């Protein structure tokens, strides 16, 4: 479902601020994989997700989604293939639009636009049924502006919108990092439920090592723009946070440096 082949990315090349973000990165995700991604500061995690999403092109290499070469495809043209939830709950939704208006936009992702009533009664009922699954009471607030929702409600809505069209690949970019622990746990449970029930392929960056171990069927660790550890199946289930820290030190030759990850372990 996803192939990253020999991808390189350097920011500010030839200057004092040169940063080699990705170095010959290779990664393949099979259909239905739920992969968690962890790494130290500046490991290249977010750069990898931004590269997949088309925020900027790679300097070299290829990116394929479901065997479609999207390497040079602009960000807006990848919307038909991808769903994405950002770290900031304020992103991914339009604050001044109603909940149902936001959902209508998500429902029309990748489709041709035309002149018609934006939201039909049948579609409104479908939105209510989807919102009931969140168990947040939002099904009775369709005409509420999204900007009035809490961070957790907004992130849950963004997650629902990102999965409405069953994307070929779901990108979760530390999507619970800005939430309090209780709300973060609920959003993570919802994420796992949607991924499992819809049979989605997902890539989730997290700073929480426990979450990286608990969720998904596969875990990768990045360092200096490369994947240094790739564990799945029973081997992943047996992991502990201490195992991950030891593996990082052994494979990179350095101590793990990510304040939020260490605080969350």
How would you describe this structure to a colleague?
The chain has 9 helices and 10 strands. Helix 4 runs parallel beside helix 5. The strands form 2 sheets. Strands 6-7-8-3-9-10 form a 6-stranded mixed sheet, with helices on both faces. It has a 4-stranded antiparallel sheet with strand order 2-1-4-5, covered by helices on one side. The two termini are 31 Å apart. The chain is globular and about 55 Å long. The chain has helices spanning 45-53, 99-107, 121-132, 151-163, 181-198, 209-214, 233-237, 241-252, 259-264, and strands at 2-11, 19-29, 34-39, 60-65, 68-69, 82-85, 169-173, 202-205, 218-223, 226-232. The chain has 265 residues and is of the alpha/beta class. Strand 9 and strand 10 (226-232) form a beta hairpin. The chain has a domain at 90-110 and 120-166.
Q: SSE order, as H and E?
A: EEEHEEEHHHEHEHEEHHH
- Provide the low-confidence segments as ranges: none
Beta-strand content bin: 15-25%
Helix segment tally:
9
The residue fraction in helices comes out at: 25-40%
User: How many beta-strand segments?
Assistant: 10
| Biggest pleated sheet | 6 strands, mixed
Radius of gyration: 19 Å
Distance between the termini: 31 Å
Mean pLDDT: 88
Which structural class is indicated by helix and strand composition? alpha/beta
Strand order of the largest sheet: 6-7-8-3-9-10
Outline: globular
Task: Describe the structure concisely for a colleague.
The protein has 265 residues and is α/β, with parallel strands linked by helices.
């Amino acid at each position: 479902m996803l192939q990253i082949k020999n991808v390189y990315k350097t920011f500010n090349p030839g200057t004092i601020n040169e940063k080699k973000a990705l170095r010959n990165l290779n990664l393949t995700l099979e259909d239905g994989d739920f992969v968690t991604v962890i790494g130290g500061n500046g490991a290249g995690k977010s750069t990898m997700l931004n590269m997949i999403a088309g925020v900027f092109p790679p300097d070299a290499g290829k990116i394929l989604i479901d065997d479609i070469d999207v390497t040079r495809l602009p960000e807006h043209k990848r919307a038909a293939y991808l769903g994405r939830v950002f770290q900031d709950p304020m992103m991914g939704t339009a604050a001044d639009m109603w909940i149902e208006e936001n959902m209508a936009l998500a429902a029309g992702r990748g489709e041709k636009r035309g002149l018609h009533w934006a939201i039909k009664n049948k579609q409104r009922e479908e939105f209510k049924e989807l919102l009931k699954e969140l168990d947040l009471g939002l099904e009775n607030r369709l005409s509420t502006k999204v900007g009035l929702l809490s961070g957790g409600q907004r992130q849950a809505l963004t997650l629902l919108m990102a999965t409405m069209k069953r994307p070929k690949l779901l990108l979760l970019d530390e999507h619970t990092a800005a939430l309090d622990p209780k709300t973060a746990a609920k959003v993570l449970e919802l994420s796992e439920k949607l991924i499992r029930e819809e049979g989605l392929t997902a890539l989730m960056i997290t700073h929480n090592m426990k979450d990286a171990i608990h969720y998904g069927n596969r875990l990768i660790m990045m360092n200096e723009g490369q994947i240094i550890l790739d564990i799945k199946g029973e081997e992943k289930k047996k992991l502990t946070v201490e195992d991950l820290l030891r593996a990082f030190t052994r494979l990179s030759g350095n101590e793990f440096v990510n304040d939020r990850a260490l605080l969350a372990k």
